[in-house]
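Late entry, evening session. Most of the bench is empty. Finally got around to the prediction I had been postponing all week. Sequence below, unchanged from the version circulated by S.P.
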Amino acid sequence: MIAKIFSAAIIGLEGELIEVEADVTGGLPATIVVGLPDTAVQESRERVKTAIKNSGSSYPQTRVSVNLAPADVPKLGTHFDLPIALAILSAYEQITFDPKDKMFLGELSLDGNLRAIPGVLAAALKARILGIEEIFVPTENAKEAALVLGLKVFAVDSLKQLIGHLQGIKLLKPEPVLETQSILQNISAALDMKDVAGQESAKRALEIAAAGSHNILMSGPPGSGKTLLARAMAGILPNLSLEEALELTKIYSIAGKLTANFVTSRPVRSPHHTTSNIALVGGGATPKPGEITLSHRGILFLDEFPEFPRNVLEALRQPLEDGVVTVSRASGSFTFPAKFTLVAAQNPCPCGFLGDGTKPCVCSPAQVFKYHKKISGPLLDRIDLHVEVPRLPYEKMAGEIRAESSAQIKERVEGARKKQKDRFNSSKTNSEMSLIEIKCYCVLDDPGQQLIKQAMKQYNFSGRSLHRILKVARTIADLKGMDNIALDHLAEAIQYRPKVE
């Protein structure tokens, strides 16, 4: 008798339906698994055999053939343990149930208990698309799968418990549907903007960056507050939408970095400057998301920006422009989302005190030139906001801080994001506008046309710089609740571009 059980494989960031077929025939005892299984799937033979015996069932003492179809799709991971065990038990007529409209995932321990697995949300989303009604997953993954509406999710502790449910001995109760509000809770940042003394111009630039998801580069001497400001920026980011929360949860689940049942706040990733190209972009023999995908819809903070290897920084150019990163391997091409806000910080020179005024710079002109050449012109051109963060005098730092709180700034940021949502009818931000959308939503009056024309001529701005100036001006107008870009919005946007006389 041939038995068929539905499961899923994770390809990139998407789930792919897999049929687990099992047949028990005469012959010497042996278990054969075919269908492009990796080492973890091949090793499932011993886990499944022992788990079945320790769950009170009998394992066939003959030849067992297991096929994972379609055979041309690579099968990776340990989550095939549970469907393989059920397929063998069904083929051996130890259990009888209707596998139609059911999907099973889970790693088996030797005693028959189920362990948590990555990628459950991607599999659950695929199950809903295919019209599958029920999904059985380890208890630790149940709340993650319950994010998918229209799907009955069953939390399973052990193979024995699942057999009892399928046989009608003791039925499991489906997980309750999670309320949207429980997902979109407001997570407060550890650092508040009001606790950062001074640096009002940098705070204003960070507000604009948060409102329109614009990339920003802060430059200043050591100890001026660049890292502090970048950390405080997390507190002014708008709350996640349900769609964004699901997307991020899927990414973190597949990457094996989901610390809770779901992602509730925007990610802030801060890789060290020794990070490799693959760690930043993603890849490996089995391509997994890198830091730029893990910071999707959040912040990628690169401190000591020029200290990153040149090839690592250049790998950012395409994702910054397209919002996706494509990783190509012999097994195929995988596209990961990468719509992040780049927040970078750098010193003005190797010693850090060029132009400081309080401490002399000890770098030679050649050293300063070499330091700045570490970051290419095309990469700098993709950064919307360039802001100086000067050293503060003691009186400014020791005096009473009278600054806006993160909550006040966040309120304006969320107002600007709401205007963008109404404008684009999606979670798209101003930084993602296409050329056609720029022409439609960034219309300038005659004084504005004259100002941008003069700036282009005087500072040798590129075409990309022009488009980024208009996007930033559009965000500044949104922060003020205005439908049209005024002259002062445009002038402020121009001030954030690096000037080339």
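Two things to note before I forget:
The chain is about 40% helix and 15% strand.
The two ends are 80 Å apart (CA to CA).
Will write this up properly tomorrow.
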